[in-house]
Structures are given as structure tokens and as C-alpha cells.
Amino acid sequence: MSITVRAAAKINLHLGVGAPRPDGFHPLVTVYQAVGLCDDVTVSSSPGWTLGVTVPDWIDADAVPVTGDNIVDRAAALLAAHHGLPQHAAISVEKSIPVAGGMAGGSADAAAALVALDRLWDAHTSDDDLLALAAELGSDVPFALIGGTALGTGRGELVEPVPDTGTWWWVVVPSATGGLSTPTVYCRFDELRPDAPAEPAGAGDLLAAVESGDPERLAETLHNDLQEAALDLRPDLATLIDLGESHGALRGMVSGSGPTCVFLARDADDARRVAGGLGAEGHPVVLVANGPVAGAHVVTRA
Ligand code: ATP
């Protein structure tokens, strides 16, 4: 038997970051949106454990850890231990989400692996248990399970869907010169914002904009507390954001911890125009995606 599960990249429409908690994690108030840029995880029955990764030519294959260090190994080990099952499967991960790009590609793979292996092993994990296992794997993994548009609190792992009446069009520009490590960006945030409040900035205006479906309103309320740190580490991104806006994007910003930049467009046609403009300026990889899309879900079963 072989099962393929698809999981989407996320954009943080709002990312409010507070001062580090005693456990070292930063408290977050974030609004996630799943966008149509997806990794596929295929699992097949096998007497042992193998993991392979394929990437498009614009992703550096060496940036994705092989078996042993891949987050998919950890997801499988956790699920197997939860049910007292042997960790047996042949897995292939087909990546399309930028690596170390602030779009939670690894988290998407972990969520997809949980769902796929749960089916392969006939484990019937409850939704609550899947969410708890996901939270152990990483702060963004529970959202990758549920998808759509959701409010994230705690360290981002406590997720609840929010009303969203829009179809939002995004232009996504992965970095051509490598990723940014999320811990490095948080460290820089701590240096730049020693006075960060314990309570992160709330998302009230943004939630109202999302519910309204109005892209101009959403553009005004997008917010990323990590942007200053990401731009400090990668000043070239500020130029890219200006360029996207000069080509007609309603608003450009760093995605999560970066360095991927995302641009909100008025509609699909505008998104194609902005993408064309950025491509013509020499950006080698410019993608268009819309959101919200579904969380991790089975696409083929054979
Ligand atoms: P986030 O936005 O959740 O902080 P990110 O999108 O910036 O994460 P990821 O693509 O999830 O970054 O990768 C973060 C690190 O995780 C990579 O540098 C890589 O070493 C490691 N990693 C482990 N497994 C995977 C995987 N399946 N895909 C991508 N990266 C992985």
C-alpha cells in the first residue's frame, strides 16, 4: 500500500512576538494562513525504514537533512512510540516549499508524515492525539495539520480556526542566496527588542480584515515582529520588498523568520503582474499561490 499526503506552506499574516518565557520559547500571537505551495509525503509498506527527498532545481538538496536528522524521522518515531508499533515504512518527500525560508516546510512534512503513517499503520490516532504529537514536534506543526486560516497562541502550537471570507493572492519570492535559521532570527529579535512586552501584540484588526475578505484592508493590517530582525540579518530583503510594492503589490513583507518574502496582491491577475515584474527584475524564482488552502490531507492511496 502507498499513501500520499499533501501539506501546505504557511504565511504569518500577523506575528506578534513577546519576551522569551522561562522555558526559552517566545510567546506568540500569530495568524497563520496555509497557502497553495505544498510538499507531498508518500509512505509505502516496507520491512525497514528508508527516507528519500526530492527537490526542484531551485531548492538546494543539501539543505534538506537526510534520514536520521529529518523531522519526518522524528514524526515517525513519535507516532510509532505512541502506539507501540515498529517504525517501518519507505518514505519519500517531494519538496516545493522553500527550505529554512520561514514558511514552515519542515513542519508541513512532519504533519503530512503523521497523517500518512497513521493511515499506513492503521493506527486510528484521535485528532486530539495527533495535535498533541504535532505540538511536540514543533510549534508550527499543529497548524500544518489543520490548515486554513487560524489563530496561534502559546508558542504557536495552540491553534483555532478563524473566520476568513477571502481568497487571498500571494506572490512568494524564496531567497536565491540561502535560508535563515529561525533561532538566529529570534536571537537577533532579543538583541534588538530587549524591551519586548511579555504579552505579544494582539491581532484584532487583522482578524477583522481577514473576515471582511477585503485585500486592501488586509494589506494595512499585516504585521510581523520578526521582520526588523530578518532585515537586519539580510538587508537585501528591504530592497526586494520595495521592488515588489513598486510593481503593484498591495504590501510586501518577510514571511515569518524569513528570508522568503511574500507580497499580497489585489487578485489573481495582479499577482501574475507582480510576479512578472519581479521576474523581469532578475529574481530567478517567483511563485504565485493563493490561500487559504487545506491542512495535511490524503491525495492518493493505492
Ligand atoms: P519555520 O518557519 O517553521 O521556522 P522554516 O520554514 O524557516 O521553518 P524549514 O524549511 O522548516 O524552515 O527548515 C528548518 C530546518 O529544519 C532546516 O534548516 C533543516 O535543517 C531542518 N529540516 C529537517 N527536516 C526537514 C524537512 N523535511 N524539510 C526541510 N527542512 C528540514
TrEMBL record:
Active site: residue positions: K10, D140
Domain GHMP kinase N-terminal stretches: 70-148
Keyword Kinase: yes
Pathway assigned in UniProt: Isoprenoid biosynthesis; isopentenyl diphosphate biosynthesis via DXP pathway; isopentenyl diphosphate from 1-deoxy-D-xylulose 5-phosphate: step 3/6
Keywords: ATP-binding, Isoprene biosynthesis, Kinase, Nucleotide-binding, Transferase
HAMAP family listed in its UniProt record: IspE
Protein name, per record: 4-diphosphocytidyl-2-C-methyl-D-erythritol kinase
Gene: ispE
